[in-house]
Structure formats: structure tokens, C-alpha cells
Description:
Layout: H1 22-34, H2 39-42, H3 48-69, H4 74-91, H5 99-111, H6 115-130, H7 138-160, H8 165-185, H9 187-192, H10 200-205, H11 221-243, H12 252-271, H13 284-296
Amino acid sequence: xxxxxxxxxxxxxxxxxxxxxxxxxxxxxxxxxxxxxxxxxxxxxxxxxxxxxxxxxxxxxxxxxxxxxxxxxxxxxxxxxxxxxxxxxxxxxxxxxxxxxxxxxxxxxxxxxxxxxxxxxxxxxxxxxxxxxxxxxxxxxxxxxxxxxxxxxxxxxxxxxxxxxxxxxxxxxxxxxxxxxxxxxxxxxxxxxxxxxxxxxxxxxxxxxxxxxxxxxxxxxxxxxxxxxxxxxxxxxxxxxxxxxxxxxxxxxxxxxxxxxxxxxxxxxxxxxxxxxxxxxxxxxxxxxxxxxxxxx
Length: 297
């Protein structure tokens, strides 16, 4: 559990984002900025209420991800994730214990965030925590991507300002596009720690061993990666089509995120799939161009 301190310091809660105490907001923002991500900077385009709503969602994801990736024994990870299931259920009953709880509760009430989406994220982290994921079948692969990426998207689009069925469709496709890109980018890093997220059926199709220690040098790996990249492009296109039917302003952060990851995918394709150990970084001009197109598009 996080440390806490007396509330009521700073501006009155009713004049602060989400009506939350300023210490609570600062604490949640500290989790975000302390993770070393550029996420906080990217959310500056949002209004204060929505920005801190996204900070709360991100902080929740960061905390449960740290549990799954930590060095604690498996039983301890399971206990910690189960505690978060209880904690999320309590939020929907109006019960809070600390700063993160209070800001999450405020975001849930303000944006109509669904309990099942938080629970799906925890379930995804449980998949990583139970044992290293190695060559899941296609159905398990898709379920994993839905839980760790699209479920986060379903929470995010509501904070962004669109709770329509088409916004959920954006989350479905964009989440998968982003997760496929992450998996393709991190094949070598994942293999080093004994993980292999590539679907078993594709491994068999391209004659790639379902062994993290051998996957990087397999002759069939480039063909497999090209197929998965093609699927990612399909999801990017489907997400863009769904965005066209959504609130344009609300979808601006999703467009920017999609453009940023599409640039990473393009960078991986320019590098070539036969060099999985070579890290790819997108140049600053390319990033700026991609973000600008998404922002003004």
C-alpha cells in the first residue's frame, strides 16, 4: 500500500482537478513521472480533469505491471494482484484507503470507467506473473493483447471524452496495433528474459522454434515478423476508420498515440526483420511530423 498523509492541503478540493485534494493529485502524478515515461508530457493536451484521470489510470497500470514484473515469489505476486482485485471492487462501493484510491475513485465517477476493464488489466498482468509467456496459441495471444492493451484503451477513451461503442472499437484495434508493435520491437529483449510472445501457429508456419534462446537466429523469423507487422497495420487502419465515427477532439490523444507507434513500426520495417537485436529509435523530426499530422488531422 502507498503511504498517506492528512488531506486538505492546498486549494479547496472543489476547485482542483476531479475535485481531489492537491496532495492526492501530486502523489498520482509522481507515480507517472517517476516511471521515466514521456506519458505525462503527452497528456498535457488534455484538460486538467482528463489529464489527472489519465494519470490515475496510468498509475494503476504502472503499479500492477510492477507487481507482475517484479522479483517477488510467484505466490506473493498472486496475492498482491488479488489484493488489487479487492481494492478495485472496493472503489465501486465508495471505499478508498490512500491517494491513488481517491483519484481513481474520482476518475471512475467522473468518466464512467468500468470495473471489468480494470479487472481485465489485472488479469493480463496475472498472465505475465504466473510464468514467462512462451509461444501462446492465437486465442491466448489475442486475449493477452486485449487485457494488457485494449482494456487500457477502453478506460482511456472514456477519460478522453467518448464512451460510444465506436470508441470501444478504437480501443480494440488501436490496443492490438500498439501491442503488436511492442512485441515486434522487443523480441530480443523478451527472449533475453525467457519470454516469447509470438503466436505458436505463426512459429510453426515459419519453422521458428518455440524457444526464446533460439528464436533470434531462426531463418523464418523475418517472414513471421512481416506477417505480424501486416496485422498491426490492419489494426491501425481499422482504428483510424473507427476514430472517424467518434468525437474528433476526444480522439486526438488516441490519434497521436497511434501515429507515434506507427512511426516505430515503420522504423522497424526500415531496419529489417533479419536484425532483431538492433534497437530502433525514431528520429525527432519524424516524431514531430507524425504527432503534428495526428494533432491537426
